[in-house]
Amino acid sequence: MNSNLLQKGAGKYKHNLNGTVDSLLGITRKIGHKELESTVKDILERVNDPFMFVIVGEVKAGKSSFINALLESKEEICKVAASPMTDTIQQVVYGDKQSITDINPFLKRITQPVEILKEIAIVDTPGTNTIIDHHQEITEKFIPSSDLIVFVFEAKNPYRQSSWEFFDYIKDEWKKKVIFILQQKDLINAADLETNINGVREQAMRKGITDPKVFPVSALQEQQGENELSGFIKVRSFIKENITGGRAPFLKLVNLSDTAQNINDRIYKGVILRKEQWESDLRFRNDIKETLDRQEERTQRQVRVLVENLLAGYDRITGSKKKDLLGGIGFLPMIKRTFQSTFGGADSPKEWLETLTTELESDLNKTFKDKLQDGVIDIADSIQDMAKVIDVKIKSSETILKDNHEIFAAIAEKRANILRDLQKAFEGFLKRSENFYENELLGGGEKIGPNLATGGGIAIVGIILTTIT
């Protein structure tokens, strides 16, 4: 009666959990994480399943024999053989009659009319060190939906590395409850068995299990009727005191809630990292923009100063030559210059004007070239210094979201590739001097004077030359 009431009371919690997990499923789809989406779907599908024991351990540790003995079945429910037989996950659940159903290529459902299976389901998994392809991956995918992990070790040697590495995955990744079974204790003497019990307990405590539950058992002794020696009485007592008796449905919901919370926390932490990375990249982008804006203002000032210097040089030189010109083109100076050129060997007015033009051109060329060279090089150096600063900033940009992140690795890798391409492009930009100034602007021996004579004072010289020739 009490058990039925508890079952009914669990109904509303199942409904609430379904709604919450369904929302979580939407989040996994939104972030595009197929593996987590599959895990959350599995949670939804298993809300109405019984409390689930998942049996894990290495090949030949005696997992299948343990299950057969635990269920007190006269028949071999889980096959036991000299070579690995469990090439799929086998879920053993209650049924009015024995049956085997292939759910998918990796999962078989076995029904048995065994009383304990009314409250629990037992899952037999491939060995963690099996040679059959993909067994560990299959087992790992089943772990998130489990309620209790029963870790079966060979009593003679419970220290194999592959077993404890898999234990780390169970504990660190999914934080599942674990009990330890030392199977085949009949094959080891009492002193060595006690040593190994303590060894497993100490190893588990080092890995963060505060009160490890370790049960030495012998499936052979249990099946031979040696119940007091087999160790299964303590295992069944643990199950009865902690799981069955109406508590299983609530414990199941608590475990599924914990798994959903675990997934939600991992997504939340990943989103926080993405947000921090986005904020960091935004600061980086704004910093680069501010650097470019400051350089643009600095360059504009430098260009204005250069132009002002060029104009000042132009005004100074043309002003001086204009003064010379005006002083030599009056009526009397021209008559005098003509007379001297005729009788004294001095330059004629035409020759004098040509000399004046040549001097003007030479002075403008020298002044403009010097000022341009100094000014353009200063501007180019300033831009190059800015580019080097940006290059350093790109190389030292903060990476918060790593490309091995369990959820957002693809986004982090894409960002890393973009940043790498940007670094490469910028390094190439720095190596090309033509990106900072045109060699033609500073090189060659072009005459600048004639190019500037189209709209200024030097045109006066041309007018006079035309008049007097």
Helical residue percent band: 55-70%
Low-confidence stretches: 448-469
Overall radius of gyration? 45 Å
Strand content: 5-15%
Structural class: alpha/beta
H-E string: HHEHEEEEHEHEHEHHHHHHHHHH
Which strand order do you get reading across the main beta sheet?
A: 3-4-2-5-1-6-7-8
Mean pLDDT reading: 81
How many helices? The count is: 16
Number of structural domains: 2
Name the shape in a single word. Answer: rod-shaped
DSSP summary, beta strand count: 8
Main sheet characteristics: 8 strands, mixed
Distance between the termini: 132 Å
Briefly, what is this?
The chain contains 16 helices and eight strands. It has 469 residues and is of the alpha/beta class.
Structural features, described:
This protein has 469 residues and is α/β, with parallel strands linked by helices. It folds into two domains: 196 residues, Rossmann fold (3-Layer(aba) Sandwich), CATH 3.40.50.300; 198 residues, no CATH class. Helix content is 62%, strand content 10%. It is built from 16 helices and eight strands. Strands 3-4-2-5-1-6-7-8 form an eight-stranded mixed β-sheet, sandwiched between helices. Strand 7, helix 6 and strand 8 form a beta-alpha-beta unit. Helix 12 packs antiparallel against helix 13. The C terminus is likely disordered.
